[in-house]
């Protein structure tokens, strides 16, 4: 390759920020002077290499530091995510337990209500039977009383008829 082509390649391969690449260092050609390469050019090139590598080392250190910070933040966020997931799982489990507990409590309340209603119904039916029995008993007693009153009334009427004075027609009219 000619020197002109190599210099063009060197300029093409320089990075966007003007930082040397390994190809730049490999392809660098120095002019020969009286005692070999030009010391000034070599020193200038080496100074440029040192500056670029210092920049690279500094940027690399900054990037490593930034990467560590980002990784720490990522670990922190992953920890938060895991905690949130665990919290969500616990919350869902608790909600399911609360629902199940509420259902059981509702079932118990319903069963107790049904038992109370059944008991109240049975008590009411028993009271109705007692009232009906009392009614029937009172009705029988009334019929017995009525029969006794009729019997007594008939007995008194019979007594009155037997002991009537001579004026039967006048007494009968007065009684009626």
Describe the structure.
This protein has 176 residues and is mostly helical. It is 85% helix and 2% strand. A two-stranded antiparallel sheet has the order 1-2. β1 and β2 form a beta hairpin.
> What share of the residues does DSSP label as strand, in percent?
under 5%
> Unreliable stretches, pLDDT < 50, 5 or more residues?
1-13
Q: Which class best fits the helix and strand makeup?
A: mainly alpha
| Biggest beta sheet attributes | 2 strands, antiparallel
- State the helicity in percent bands: over 70%
What gyration radius follows from the Cα positions, in whole Å? 62 Å
| Head-to-tail CA distance between termini | 165 Å
With strands numbered from the N-terminus, the spatial order across the biggest sheet is 1-2
Average pLDDT taken over every residue:
82
Q: What is the count of β-strands? A: 2
User: SSE string, helix = H, strand = E?
Assistant: HHEEHH
Tally of alpha and pi helices: 4
Estimate the global geometry from the Cα principal axes.
rod-shaped
Keywords:
176 residues; mainly alpha; two-stranded antiparallel sheet; 4 helices; 85% helix
């Amino acid at each position: 390759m000619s020197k002109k082509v190599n210099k063009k390649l060197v300029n093409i391969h320089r990075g966007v920020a003007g930082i040397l690449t390994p190809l730049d260092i490999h392809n660098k050609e120095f002019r020969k002077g009286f005692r070999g390469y030009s010391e000034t050019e070599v020193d200038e090139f080496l100074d440029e290499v040192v500056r670029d590598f210092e920049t690279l080392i500094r940027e690399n250190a900054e990037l490593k530091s930034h990467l560590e910070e980002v990784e720490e933040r990522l670990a922190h966020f992953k920890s938060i995510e895991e905690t949130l997931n665990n919290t969500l799982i616990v919350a869902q489990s608790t909600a399911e337990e609360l629902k199940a507990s509420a259902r059981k409590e509702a079932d118990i309340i319903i069963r107790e209500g049904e038992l109370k209603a059944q008991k109240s119904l049975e008590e009411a039916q028993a009271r109705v039977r007692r009232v009906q029995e009392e009614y029937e008993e009172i009705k029988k007693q009334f019929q017995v009383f009525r029969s006794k009153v009729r019997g007594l009334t008939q007995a008194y009427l019979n007594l009155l008829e037997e002991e009537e004075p001579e004026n039967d027609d006048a007494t009968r009219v007065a009684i009626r």
